[in-house]
Amino acid sequence: MSQDNMIKFECTECKKINYFSRKNKKLLKTRLETKKHCKHCKKHTLHKETK
User: Fold this and answer.
1) Residue 26 CA: distances (Å) to CA of 4, 5, 21, 29
2) Are 35 and 11 spatial neighbours (Cβ–Cβ below 8 Å)?
3) What structural domains does the chain harbor?
4) With contact defined as beta carbons under 8 Å apart, do 18 and 33 qualify?
């Protein structure tokens, strides 16, 4: 994967980076938020895109 399009998802509760994904930064200007399973919290939490 190209490093230009890579984004990191951080858990809002424990603040650990759990997931990586990619997005088209030219089309999507806002930061993504998804509910994903955090292996550290052991539950589904909101994950936000970091820098």
Assistant:
1) 11, 10, 16, 7
2) no
3) 6-50 (2.20.28.120)
4) no
pTM for this model (two decimals):
0.81
Q: What are 8's two structure tokens?
A: 């990191």
Query: What's the rounded Cα separation, in Å, for the pair 11 and 1?
Result: 23
How confident is the model over 1-51, as pLDDT tens digits?
Answer: 678 889 999 999 999 999 999 999 889 999 999 999 999 999 999 999 997
Q: Which long-range contacts (CB under 8 A, 24 or more apart) does 6-10 make?
A: 7/32, 7/49, 7/50, 8/49, 8/50, 8/51, 9/34, 9/36, 9/47, 9/48, 9/49, 9/50, 10/47, 10/48, 10/49, 10/50
